[in-house]
């Protein structure tokens, strides 16, 4: 058996997919109707046109019986989840670059003052109180500095 995209998924992603699949397999038949795929994809935030959907269904419903097994479903979902992970990597790379720009001395952190400047640039309507609250939330260890992990958590949310 060839390795499907499903093999690239992490355990938590597979268990999330299994829960989703089970929710639609109401009668616990071990498959879902192929025409449910469009609904599921919409719920997962991936909207496709009707003819695209027909192509996807005929591709994943390999035996053409109108029924999609969990295996077929997971291989379809993996395409979208794997693409999403690649996007996240690209975003992290950009953020790392921005962090290095602000970490002028290469200490592995930026000061709260620099963070305040960044936040002001992002939204010039922020009050000093807003900034204080955001800084308190971001500088979780109260060090007066923001390390890469704290910065990343804020920017990716």
UniProtKB/TrEMBL annotation:
Reply yes or no: does the keyword Ubl conjugation apply: no
SUPFAM superfamilies annotated for this entry? EF-hand
Q: Which range is the signal sequence, renumbered to this chain? A: none
The record's listing under InterPro entries reads: CALM/Myosin/TropC-like (IPR050230), EF-hand-dom_pair (IPR011992), EF_Hand_1_Ca_BS (IPR018247), EF_hand_dom (IPR002048)
**Recorded superkingdom:** Eukaryota
Give the residues annotated as coiled coil.
Answer: none
- Keywords carried by this UniProt record: Calcium, Repeat
EF-hand domain span: 12-47, 48-83, 90-125, 126-157
Q: Does the keyword Protein transport apply?
A: no
Kindly provide the name given to this protein in its UniProt entry: EF-hand domain-containing protein
- The organism is Molorchus minor
């Amino acid at each position: 058996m060839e390795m499907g995209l499903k093999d690239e998924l992490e355990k938590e992603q597979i268990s999330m997919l299994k829960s989703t699949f089970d929710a639609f397999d109401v009668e616990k038949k071990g498959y879902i109707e192929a025409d449910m795929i469009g609904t599921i994809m919409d719920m997962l935030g991936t909207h496709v046109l009707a003819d695209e959907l027909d192509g996807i269904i005929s591709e994943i419903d390999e035996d053409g019986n109108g029924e999609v097994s969990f295996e077929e479903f997971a291989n379809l979902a993996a395409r979208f989840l794997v693409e999403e992970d690649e996007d996240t990597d690209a975003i992290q790379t950009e953020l790392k670059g921005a962090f290095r720009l602000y970490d002028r001395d290469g200490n592995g952190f930026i000061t709260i003052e620099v963070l305040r400047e960044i936040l002001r640039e992002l939204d010039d309507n922020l009050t000093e109180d807003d900034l204080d609250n955001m800084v308190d939330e971001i500088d979780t260890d109260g060090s007066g500095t923001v390390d890469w992990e704290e910065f990343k958590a804020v920017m990716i949310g």
